[in-house]
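Milestone 3.1: sequence recovery, worked example.
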């Protein structure tokens, strides 16, 4: 999805929801700055993909689109490199940066609270069941970007950044051991990615996840076929 497309979407959002006229290009550029220094699996291109997922789900699920769009664009903004920073520090900085951004752009207090809630509970590692439709949509949209072809790419992008071995040579597919993705890159499929399809909240999210889940399982099957002779 190109930036020009997102500029047009934000202009429509501004005309419909925000109180004062503003330059939509400036809004997007300012949001992009909040992703400076992020690791490549959680950078602004990730935010744009999550935005695209969230917009598709939100429109089909009759959600409050101002909340959905702003939460998606800002959901990983404001913190440091996710692979390095401690979770509590990262979370506090992120929420403060998101709230400051929303205030500067004259977003109403009611919408700010909904956006901040969605951003706060979206993370898989927190294990929080979201209560609002918009927060459920953000979780679904973010998790969709962790599966399918892009999910495979992000797994190995992250593993390379952390200098993790590709797989456990004795049991690559976790058949006789618990997955440990702090040691083996491929274990992340079994610790997290293969579970995401069943955890989707919305009907649209479930439908999109089924398609991407097929891609994950096919990749693992193809990988096993290719490496099995060396095991």
């Amino acid at each position: 999805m190109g930036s020009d497309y997102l500029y047009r979407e934000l202009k429509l959002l501004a005309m419909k929801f925000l109180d004062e006229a503003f330059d939509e290009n400036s809004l997007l550029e300012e949001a992009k700055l909040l992703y400076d220094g992020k690791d490549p699996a959680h950078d602004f291109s990730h935010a744009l993909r999550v935005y695209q997922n969230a917009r598709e789900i939100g429109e089909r699920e009759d959600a409050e689109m101002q909340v959905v769009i702003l939460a998606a664009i800002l959901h990983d903004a404001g913190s440091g490199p996710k692979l390095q920073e401690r979770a509590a520090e990262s979370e506090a900085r992120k929420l403060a940066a998101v709230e400051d951004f929303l205030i500067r752009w004259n977003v109403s207090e009611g919408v700010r609270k909904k956006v901040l809630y969605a951003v706060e509970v979206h993370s898989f590692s927190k294990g929080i069941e979201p209560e609002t439709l918009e927060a459920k949509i953000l979780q679904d949209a973010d998790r969709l970007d962790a599966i399918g072809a892009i999910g495979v790419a992000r797994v190995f992008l992250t593993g390379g950044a952390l200098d993790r071995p590709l797989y456990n040579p004795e049991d690559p597919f976790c058949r006789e051991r618990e997955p440990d993705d702090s040691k083996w890159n491929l274990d992340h499929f079994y610790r997290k990615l293969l579970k995401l399809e069943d955890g989707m909240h919305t009907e649209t999210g479930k439908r999109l996840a089924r398609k991407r889940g097929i891609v994950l399982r096919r990749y693992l099957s193809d990988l096993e076929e290719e490496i099995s002779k060396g095991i």
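The chain has ten helices and no strands. Residues 102 and 203 are 29 Å apart (CA to CA).
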